[in-house]
Structures are given as C-alpha cells and as structure tokens.
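Q: Got a minute? One more chain.
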Amino acid sequence: MKRLLAVVLLGVTGLSASSPSAWEMTTFADFLKGKFEGVSLGRDGRLAVAAKLETLFDSGQPVIWAVAPAADGGLYVATGHRGRVFKVERDGKSSLLWTAPGPEVFALAVDAKGALYAAVSPDGKIYRIEGGKATEYFDPKAKYIWTLTMGSDGALYAGTGAEGKVYRITGPGQGEEYYATGQANVTSLVADGQGRLLAGTEPNGVLFRISAKGKAFVLYDSNLPEIRAVAVNTDGSILAAGLGGALAKKVQAAQPAAQGAAADAAPAAYSVTVTAAETDIKPPEVPKTPPAATPVAAPQPTTQSAAVVQDVSGVERSAIYRINADNTVDTLFSSKEENVYDILAGAGGAFSFSTDQNGRVYAMSGDRKLTLTAQSNEAEIVRLLRWNGAMLAAAANMGRLYRLGPAGAAGTYESPVYDAGSVARWGRLRWQGEGSVAIRTRSGNSGRPDDTWSEWSEPTRAAAGTQIASPNARYLQLKAEFTGAGAAVTGIVAAYLPQNNPPQIRSITALTQASAVTASGSSKGGASSTPSFSVTVTDTGDPGTATSTGTATQTLSRAQGQQLMLSWQADDPDGDRLVYQVDFRGDGESTWKSLRRNLHENTLLIDGDALADGKYLFRVAASDRESNAGASARDAELVSSPVLIDNTAPVVKVASSKRVGTAADIEFAATDSASALRRAEWSVDAGPWTAVAPVDGVLDSETEQFRLHIADLPAGEHVLVLRVADSGGNAGLAKVVLQ
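A: Always. Here it is, folded:
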C-alpha cells in the first residue's frame, strides 16, 4: 500500500505547483467508521461481499427486549414499551400472542414442555403462557426482572433488581430466594450445563458462579459496571461481555409506565456518557484486577431520575472476557466506542457478538481473528440466537428481527466523510482489490451529506487510477459497490490538492536590545534606569493589507551602542514553513527600503546607528513559497505603528544665573531636534536630583524655558548641574558655578 500511495502522490504533483495530499483507507479502523450493507470487514482491513441482514419480523414496537425459540420451531419475541409478546412461525408469519399488564417484557424462557414464561416489569412478575392463555406464575416482590433461564434441574431461575437476587421457581407460586449477589441488579443469567448458574451483575460488573442455594464463587470482577451477557463455550470456557452501563437504558425505559404514563407513551430519554481517547477498538489486553466487589444497596426506583447516566470515563466502553477452566481470564476484545450487548458461542472457540454502533454483528475465530460480518446501520443489536440453521439478530430501538443469510452476490460500502480542511482540488482515485468492484464519489462543503452535496458520480472500475469526477469541495465521500462472491478491496487512496491558505502576521514589536534585558532583570543598586518603550501593532483582520494600525506614535529609548530589535508573530493555517522580508520607510519618504530578505527567524537586529533620528515604519512580509511553489504560494504583510528613533541628546543652554545671599536664580532653555522633552532636574554638588517644571507648566515640547530658584545655599562656591532628557531617554547637561 505504501507503494500505491507513493505513485498517487507523484501523479498528483503535475496537477499544480502546490503540495499534494492523500486520503488513505487501508486498516480495520479506517473502514470501520463507514456504512456496510452486505459487506464484511476483516481485521486486516479487507472489505468483501458477505451476508446481508434481512428483516424477518417487524414488530412495529419501539424495542425488542428478548427472543426465545419455541418448541414447534417458531420464535417468541418480547417487546417494550407496550408490553407485548409475539409468535413468529417458521415461515416468517407472525401474530400477537399476549399483551402484558406492564409496559416491559424484559425476559422470556421456554421449558421442556414448551410452556413460555414472560417476565413483566416494573413491579416485576412472571407469567406462564400456555395454550394462548397467560396466568401469573410467580411474584418475587422485585421491582424489575431482568433475565430468565431454565436450569438443568427443570426449575426456572430469575435474575432481579433492584436488590440483585436470583430466585429458583419450581411451580405456580412456588419459589424461593436462591442467591443474593449483594449487587443492585442481576443482568444476565445462564445455566452452564453442570447444574450451576452463571450470573452477571451491575453496578460492579461481577460474574458469579452459583453452585447451590446461598453458595457462589466470584469468577471475575470486571473494571466495567455491568456484565451484560454470558455464554458457555463447548470446551467449558465462559465468555462474558462487560459493559459501561447499558442497564440504565432499561431502567429508564421502564419508568414511564411505573410513573403512570400511558401505555402508548414514547420511550424515555436516556444517555450513556463515555469519555474516551483515540480510536474504536484496541488490541486485546488483560485488564488490571479491580478491587473485589462489595455489596451495593438497592436503588430507590420511586426517586430515581429519568436521566441516569453511567460514566465510564477513562476506561473501555465494553470488553469481552474469556474465563478459562483454570479461572484465568483473557480479554478477547475491548472498545472505547461500542457497547457489546450479546454473545453467541460457536464451535472451536469461535463466537459472534453484537453491538450498538450502527447495529453491528462481529465474528471472532478461535485464533482471535475479528471480522465485522453485518451491520444494520440503524439499530442496536441486543440479542443473537441460532434458529433454523441461521443466525438471528434482534434490534432494540427499531423493534425488528433480522436474519443473517448466506453470502450474497452483491454489497456496498459507504465511507465516512473525509474533511480536507479547506476546499480541495481532487486528484486521482486508486484502490487495491480483486473481483468486480466499482467506486463512486460525491463532495460538498457541509459536514454531513445533504441536498447541497453533489450527486454520486458515475462508477469507475479503473483500480489503477482515475480522476475523481466530483466538484472541488472541502468534504469527500466514497461508495464501493461489490458484485460477485470474490469481490474485495484492501485499500483505497484518494489524492487531492488542498487549498493553500495565506499566512497571518499577528503583530510586530520593536524595542531596543537593552530594553529587552531590562524587562527581564532588575536594576542594580536601586539606581533609576533609562525608561524603555516598545511598540506593538496587532493584526487588523486582513493580513494582506499594508496599512498602519493608526495607534499613537511611541518612542524607543536608545543608549550609545544599543541595537534595535524587531520581532513579529506569524503563523500559517496549513503549517507551511514561512520566509520573511523586512522593509522600512522614514517619515516623509515614499519608497520602502529593504532591510533583510529570505529570513526564516521572526526577529531581526539592526545597528542603532544605522538609522538617523526620526520616525520610521517597518513592514514585515511573510510568504509560504518554499512549501507552495509558483502561483499557489500566498503572501501576507503587516506595517508597524510609527517608531520614533532618537539618538541625539537635548541641548541645554543657561541664559542667566544670579546669586543673592543664600539664594540663587537661574534661567535656562533646553531644545531637542527629534523628540519632545520629558524630564528636567537639577543637582547641587553631586547631590540628589530634584525635578524642575518648565515656565509653561507642562513638559511636552521640543523646546522649553525654565526658571529655577534655589534657596538656603550655604556660603561658598557650589556646582549646579542641569539635566534634561528627551522622549528617547537621551540626556543633555549644563553646568553652572555659583559663587
């Protein structure tokens, strides 16, 4: 497949100067997210024609809970939320057998004489149906009866909730508590053929082997809340399905009737919350042994919310365990996306199981090879059984019974929708396989296919490669059509040229190198440091528009020998490598001058003496031309706010100085050629600096006049120093000797 992909990429390169990409489906996980109809999927990622799920019986009810073979070769089907039991004959004809007094019939069992037993919930009771007539058989005084099974001793066993007990029933009204699990619910119950019972429970996911009244052994304590299904292999090993809380669905479905809702009410809403990472199915692992199960108090159905959620965050959503004869445990399957609802044991260690994800049926061979054999695409498959040489699958939320027939002559596979990230130019479609296979495509710009998408293209049978006919768009979907028993596909590659998005320059910052150091450190000795300034301009939303942000001019400080550092933030939506160009333009100039080209770093140092005093604009341009050659390359640029560079100190001139006794009066002026004055101060005999205000009271011009009066000067000669600093931090000095 790697060779095929390489050929595809080489073939697309000629379509445009941009970099080609490819959507490749070759693995089990790649194909699993699609829609299957008469097509199977092997663990090796092989799609092939397989059996179809044919509708055997449509109950017209919201949900099927249980199916049991009848003694005459027919079937009994129990439904909810209207509490009905149907009889399906061998020829597929069906009839309503019984309407229960409660909304849910969760379990069925048939004894050796052909009598049918039905468990009705809530306020659970067991009814015996024989000769078309139903009579109350046993009342365990339980809220729910989840499961029924016939034991090898001919007794009927019932698993209940919400007290998690198993009852043994030997006749009308004749029953007793057989074992109390200490769990809230007994969710699965199977006889193991050796006079013992296997009981799966919830909410601690404990599997019990009950050997006698009041006597049991914990076979396995799962890390999942519920043991949903149990099956016994021909070699005596036991298969158990752990589940992340599907029992909540049953409980909530039963509640409308328990709360007095009408018989025809819609099913209650429910949800199962799963926080998971990565993909659907992972290689089998033996789970860590969790703490031993502890007794759980029975829930109070009268106060239970209809929004119960089982959260199995951070663990598998479901798993299938094999408990061997020596009580060791192997994990044969685990999933973070699918719930396993039922298991059907086969020969030689093989088995089938069903899930909720698009109503799937999987098969696992004795050597652990996994195959997706069928998919209903619309229903949860909650029950599997063999009937008249075929496998049957009962769908919960569609109320249908499907039959898995022999391998068909045709099938289709519809891929998940592929997101190219932006509008793409489609290239060639290639695949590997054998037999008669045709592939269609369609495309659109909405996340889910709707009437805005293109129609399915004409089928192509050229596996070696053909141009995708669907319109350029962001999303693409494939449909593979298989004809004949030997038709199969093991890999599909769709090449495309993604639209190249322009880079974005977010901001430009200019500052002196000394300012950068000062910002990260502290001044020593407590002395005042030269003030630092930075200028930042942010993206206005159009990276291609070379306009100033319009913010007020700010000023950079500079001391002798400093460098100007320009830095910018830029990125590319496609992850392309960017190359930069930096230009500058002085105030009053009309032409941009180049500072540096072909930069890959996002910083640039400039000698502080290279630019004379004045205001400057800096322009940064970014290009992705090194990743997208030719006309497909995209550019963006951003211009900084005006940056004032001031390298020259103010000139301070003393107009007059006069000393009278212990006082002195001095008049002086200060002028700067580049920026406004910002600070004026004086010091006598190298003493502390004292600020002085200009004559007009506001220090804000390039030229200012000052009058300074100093009182209480001691007798004798003194040295007065006048210091005036401009906006760039440059200081001019003047000295006056006072006699």
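A: The first helix runs from residue 2 to 13.
Q: Perfect, thanks.
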